[in-house]
Design a protein that fits this description.
Shape: globular
Number of strands: 30
CATH class of the largest domain: Mainly Beta
Helix content: under 10%
Strand content: 35-45%
Radius of gyration: 23 Å
Structural class: mainly beta
Number of domains: 3
Largest sheet: 8 strands, mixed
CATH superfamily of the largest domain: YVTN repeat-like/Quinoprotein amine dehydrogenase
CATH topology of the largest domain: Methylamine Dehydrogenase, Chain H
Length: about 450
């Protein structure tokens, strides 16, 4: 046993080593560079977890919460930046530009080191409307070399997802445009929703967004859900509807299964749907049982076996993270406190942990103290040995045990943080404007 190991076996020695390790970590964080007043590394005052700024440019955004941003080996993550596609290397801890130009990430392949992206050749129209995009090229870009392979131009629709074996892309197409966010965009936010209340006064961002979404839903614009064959460019319509089709995402493991939503204010729609890529087996995953019940922001577990979604019974009163098992058809509901409700949830690759990105007082939960990035552990609460005779047929209840990872009280939730776990479970990536401009960050787990 060397001197260092011997010293650590004593109570005082262990304490001294803990102090010295903490001092070294604190020094490392404090010595890290600060650009434009925004720290590159720091420790969160609540959790003492280290937070790393992954982006160098202001207004750099991590991807939407279910659009995979990581290579399978966890080494790289991508982000959208004003100059193109940003790349962060977790081994070298360096940021670079993967593709320069008017690019935007769709997602990273779940099996290959490839980033699927779109490149705009002209004016960018309203992207939320899944409308006509004749001026968009689609590419597969190698990570980390940046070598780009042209896939094609597909004018009817907006491609948003790639399947598990990299053979199909998918998206939605609306036959006419409805502008969700007319008027001035708000700097350092996700846009600008504007609407007036019954008293003629401007509504808050959240309330105006709901009004605009209700207006869009009422239009009943004919739409198509479609796939594109990556090799041949063949476009195939798998669903036609006057519902507002949105939130399109392929299964994480089954290349022939798509999930999508009927978009709109959640209390007005049966939101969560699935369909096979040949157009068969259209089905809904959740039917409400009470008025004003809402369910949404659905996503697949990484093993493809379950769908998770935000459930409120009723809206704004009782909060659950619900699951539906695609094989057994069994359901679970994990209860959350009001302050723990999050705009989006996500699960770790191994299924052991969940995360949420919190919310502010104007959002549906009206949380007085909910502006945090949370880590959750799911606990089942019905294993008491006194179950109902038909317990196997019923929803299995549980609760989420929360830990606050990141203090987001300086964050403006007009930017949704959109948390994602790295495949190895070492990092949780999110976007934030807590320092003013939007940047991409990772908390070290």
């Amino acid at each position: 046993m060397n001197r260092r190991e011997l010293l650590k076996t004593t109570t005082l020695g262990s304490a001294l080593f803990m102090m010295s390790d903490s001092l070294r970590a604190a020094t490392r964080v404090s010595e890290a560079s600060t650009e434009g007043g925004i720290p590159k590394r720091w420790r969160d005052p609540l959790s003492n977890k280290e937070i790393i700024r992954l982006s160098d440019q202001d207004n750099s955004r991590a991807l939407y919460f279910h659009d995979n941003s990581f290579t399978r080996d966890s080494r790289y993550t991508v982000m959208d930046t004003p100059e193109g596609i940003g790349l962060y290397d977790f081994v070298e801890h360096k940021t670079s530009l993967l593709a320069e130009g008017n690019y935007e990430v769709i997602m990273v392949s779940r099996t290959k080191p490839i980033c699927y992206a779109r490149r705009y050749l002209g004016e960018v129209k309203e992207k939320d409307n899944d409308n006509l995009f004749e001026n968009v090229e689609y590419y597969a870009i190698d990570i980390p070399t940046g070598e780009a392979r042209f896939i094609g131009v597909f004018p009817k629709g907006f491609i948003v997802t790639v399947n598990a074996d990299d053979t199909l892309m998918a998206g939605a197409f609306a036959t006419r445009l409805f502008e969700l966010q007319p008027g001035e965009r708000v700097a350092n936010t996700d846009g600008g929703y504007h609407a007036l209340g019954p008293d003629g006064k401007p509504l808050s961002f959240a309330a105006a967004k709901e009004v605009r979404m209700a207006d869009r839903l009422a239009q009943r614009i004919p739409m198509e859900l479609f796939t594109i064959n990556i090799e041949t460019g063949e476009r195939k319509v798998i669903l036609e509807s006057t519902e507002w089709l949105n939130h399109v995402q392929f299964s994480t493991t089954d290349p022939n299964v798509l999930m999508y939503c009927h978009e709109g204010p959640w209390h007005m729609v049966d939101r969560i749907w699935m369909i096979n890529t040949d157009g068969s087996n259209k089905r809904t995953l959740h039917k409400r049982t009470m008025n004003m019940e809402i369910a949404g922001h659905e996503f697949f577990s990484y093993d493809g076996n379950k769908v998770y979604y935000d459930l409120q019974t009723p809206r704004g009163e009782s909060f659950w993270l619900a699951t539906y098992d695609l094989t057994t058809h069994k359901r679970q509901q994990f209860h959350l406190q009001r302050n723990e409700w999050s705009v989006h949830f996500q699960i770790s690759y191994d299924g052991k942990w969940l995360a949420g990105d919190g919310g502010d007082s104007e959002m549906v939960a009206h949380a007085e103290d909910g502006k945090y990035i949370y880590l959750f552990e799911a606990e089942v609460i019905d294993d008491l040995g006194v179950s109902a005779p038909n317990a196997d047929e019923l929803i299995r209840p549980g609760r989420l045990k929360s830990t606050k990872l990141v203090d987001m009280r300086k964050h403006d939730y007009r930017v949704e943080p959109n948390v994602q776990f790295s495949p190895d479970g070492k990092y949780l990536v999110f976007r934030s404007n807590m320092h003013g401009p939007i940047h991409t960050y990772a908390v070290v787990l």
